[in-house]
Each structure stands twice: as C-alpha cells, then as structure tokens.
Amino acid sequence: CTGNGICKCRVCECFPNFTGSACDCSLDTLPCMASNGQICNGRGTCECGTCNCTDPKFQGPTCEMCQTCLGVCAEHKDCVQCRAFDKGEKKETCSQECMHFNMTRVESRDKLPQPGQPDPLSHCKEKDVDDCWFYFTYSVNSNGEANVHVVE
C-alpha cells in the first residue's frame, strides 16, 4: 500500500488523504496550487497531487508556463500607461481602446491586492515610455470584469 495504508485480506485500506488500489494517489491539492492561489492556475485539474493541464498552451507542474503567451502584463501595459499616466503608445486612442477594465490608483506597491483572493491575479512590473518602472495588478472577477490596480 506504498506506506499510505494497511493491507487487509489483500486489499489496501488507505489512510486519510490517499486513494487508489495501492493508496498511491494523494488527495492533497497543495502541490497543484499555482502562485495566483488557484488549483492548476485555473487551467487544469489536480489528479493525485499532480496537475493535468487541460489548456494545451499551458504546461508545467501548476499549468503556469506558457511559451506562446504574450502575458497579461505586456498585453495590458500600454492601456494601463495611458489610463493612469496619460502617456505611451495608446495615448491618442486610449478612450477607444482602453476602457475594458476598471482602474483603481493606490499609493504604493504594498497597497496592491495580494495573492490569496478568489480572482486570478497578475502582479506586473513594466517600463514606460520614459524608461521608468511602473507597477500594477490585473485580475478578472467571477462576473468577467477586469480590474486593474496601479501604483500612482
């Protein structure tokens, strides 16, 4: 019973948190927890303590690696820059192209939302047109609304 149960009459009786004919399947989902606090990054299922990624673009132990993705941060960088600081590549088209998220300004980086909330959350650090770093978070809630928090 792979040390996770007791053999009785040639059948394994598994200890709590283990299942399978040889008690070799862990029910612990902690190894499947992604950095955003979601099981398998919301892109897979946790089976026996291992992520089975259902979105083919994503891979890795917690379905967080995507070689072909631009990334949430890079994707929204120009819109956050024009909405928050009125500059960047989309400055002229900001009101047409960049109204797809709610924006909240915060005083400092420690005031940004932290992982552990129910919505998937990305922490971003991007360079602006003046070669300065700016910081923001991007999350999508259960209603499909995008929320950006940006450091002033």
TrEMBL record:
Keyword Iron-sulfur recorded = no
Keywords, sorted A to Z: Disulfide bond, EGF-like domain, Glycoprotein, Membrane, Repeat, Signal, Transmembrane, Transmembrane helix
Q: Which GO terms describe its molecular function?
A: C-X3-C chemokine binding; collagen binding involved in cell-matrix adhesion; fibronectin binding; integrin binding; laminin binding; protein kinase binding
GO CC field: cell surface; focal adhesion; integrin complex; synapse
> InterPro entries given for it?
EGF_extracell (IPR013111), Integrin_bsu (IPR015812), Integrin_bsu_tail (IPR012896), Integrin_bsu_tail_dom_sf (IPR036349), Integrin_I-EGF_CS (IPR057243)
Entry's Gene Ontology BP terms: cell adhesion mediated by integrin; cell migration; cell-cell adhesion; integrin-mediated signaling pathway
Q: Where is the Integrin beta subunit tail domain?
A: 73-152
One Pfam family assigned to this protein is Integrin_B_tail
List, alphabetically, the SMART domains matched: Integrin_B_tail
Under what name is this protein listed? Answer: ITB1 protein
Per the UniProt record, the source organism is Lophotis ruficrista
In the record, what lineage is assigned to the organism producing the protein? Eukaryota, Metazoa, Chordata, Craniata, Vertebrata
